[in-house]
Amino acid sequence: MIVHVLRRAEEARIGRVVIATDAPEIAHAVKALGGDAIMTRADHPSGSDRIHEALDALDPSHQIDTIINVQGDLPTIAPADIRAVLGPLDDPAVDIATLAAVITKPDEHANPNVVKVVGSSVSPTRLRALYFTRATAPSGDGPRYHHIGLYAYRRDALARFVALPPSPLELREKLEQLRALEAGMRIDVTVVDSVPLGVDTPHDLETARQILAGKRS
Question: CA 175, CA 167: separation in Å to the nearest integer?
Answer without folding.
Answer: 10
